[in-house]
Amino acid sequence: MLLDMELEFSGFKHSDEYIGTHNTTDSEIGRGTFSDVYSTEILIADEKKKAAVKTLRQPLEGNEESYIQLAEVHNLRRFCHTNIVELYGISYKCDKEGTKYLQIFHGIKDGKVKIADMGVAKEVSYILGTLTGTPSTIAPEVYHGKLYGTEADIYSLGIIMWEMWYCDAAYSTKEYNFLNMNEFADCIKEGKRPTFNTGFAPPSDLKKMIETCWSSNTTVRPSAENVFVELSSWMRI
What we know:
This is Protein kinase domain-containing protein. With about 240 residues, the chain is of the alpha+beta class. The chain folds into 2 domains: about 1-105, Phosphorylase Kinase, domain 1; about 135-225, Orthogonal Bundle (Transferase(Phosphotransferase), domain 1), CATH 1.10.510. It contains 9 helices and 7 strands. It has a 5-stranded antiparallel sheet with strand order 3-4-5-7-6. A two-stranded antiparallel sheet has the order 1-2. The chain is globular.
């Protein structure tokens, strides 16, 4: 798809000489539900820059999948943050298989975590009571089918912090192994959470933060800013 075309968009020029995909199987760095991502180089103002190219496996056809991909482009164009990938641009190619689509991102550096998947991002004021996400990190209000906001993300953060401390997946004990989705959701709605191993419990401040983040009461969960400030203060100690 990329080897025989020259792309020009967003003020940047990219050609197969610099796109770095002559051996795409060697440069593949990830796969998603709808697309593949490759490591590449692009030429900007006569300077080679490392980037990532995301290509769709199927052509855009005006379906839900196409909407998700285009919504991701819309969302990424609006963000400018050190931990979110910057979108260089998009390109379409029309051929016998239909319209294919790719995105090119920059800022891909070793050891630096960046958010790259914005396909299901929505305005906070428009978040519906839809059930999406990894089951173990879904907040109880989401399982209840209620409208939810950023507090649901803080709940997920609490679960993830527990997993990072214990280097284990939440709810991986045998009592949860044979539950179906509805049974597991009932456990979360009833207030069940991962347990803290007394032999390797986190420091009291971290334990308190985790428990506050995954509280069933959304009003007591901290904001993302408060979590950041608190964690940053610990790192300076």
